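Notebook entry, structure prediction.
Reason for the run: the old model in the group folder had no record of what sequence produced it. Starting over properly, with the input documented here first.
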Amino acid sequence: MSAVGAVFSCSCLRAGVWLLKPGMQKMSSIHTAARCAVRDYYEVLVLGGGAGGIAMSARMKRRVGAENVAVVEPSKTHYYQPLWTLVGGGAKQLAASARPTRSVIPSGVEWIKSQVTAFDPDNNYVWLENDIKVSYKYLIIALGISLHYEKIKGLPEGFNHPKIGSNYSAQTVEKTWRALQDFKEGNAIFTFPNTPVKCAGAPQKIMYLADAYLRKTGKRSKANIIFNTSLGVIFGVKKYADALLEIIKDKNIVVNYKRNLIEVRADKQEAVFENLDKPGKTEVYQYEMLHVTPPMGPPAVLINSPVSDAEGWVDVDKETLQHKKYPNIFGIGDCTNLPTSKTAAAVAAQSGVLDKTISLVMKNKLPVKKYDGYTSCPLVTAYNKVILAEFDYNGQPLETFPIDQSKERRTMYHMKADMMPVLYWNALLKGYWGGPAPVRKLMHLSLK
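New structure, fully documented this time:
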């Protein structure tokens, strides 16, 4: 899951509640939301404390000063979610993906531990919980994408049963590993929903790790690995799709296209799928292990919002990330309607472009830096192999290294497992990593 964006489902801390809890006064003095009332105005207000929100707050701190920037984020924990593929496969620990939110918010930037409830872009303010109104000069929306397990009948309560997990939630990712360890004999089913998703490669990455684990433990001959995907292709970029299909063939994995999970009967270990090519027709599968990729969608506050398009995504220019109607509003990451794959790598590339866009808007100049849709998905195909897919808006490969990246490589696995987390915590979140474009240019120029 190269997509780094952080979407949190934790309940929010309401403004002022800390006054009733004596222990809360000990919170870091750096983040003023923990010690005084929220101010009513900020030059730059960032909504969301995931990868995009934190990266942009660090960049905006350097533009206008920390005291003029605030981040609205309810969750106390920030997760590096791309690691969850390896957590679900037993190769990493969940704790390695988590850090306190206060530790990733740039020093001096105000952390407002609340969530946005409404927008009024015509008057340059937002509403937070408890009817708190905050105005801004510039607004950056980085609210991520919402998970909707509840849209599958039988979930999320089905996760209380064994044999089922999901790498998309901190509450369920370790259940994936337990289900894999407990596998005895039967169907191991992996799903892909009929909605936009973050990191579209993740639903099949865990499938390849499951195959590798079952081979290692001598159980593969007793397993029927099935990928039921709502899509009509294995991957959206042909170069990488062709490589994946060869791997799937070699691993003897069954792929069923146009199959969408609609119900889980966890007590019976049954999964019900609709056939999207035959409306009204359903298929019931018995499972020994089930990995669920949930339906996803825009955060509720964006649906029918004046800053969103008809589907509920923040409506931004695909090259500048500036809002199409409100020039002082910008969007980044999974919550936007940018027509590219929703990944962390995309957030990194977008952050560099957006930084340039905002800096010019602040000077009353037109943005010139253009985002080309760059995104990346390190497709984990074994415990020591990765296909590094990189591509642009047009679905054309946009590869960093002067090698054929559709080949499985051990070096790319170590980059995914060991280097990218360091880059995330120490460069992207600090506003210093805007994607690999400079590296790509250097790598390819060296061959000319």
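Summary: The mean pLDDT is 92.
The old model has been moved to the deprecated folder.
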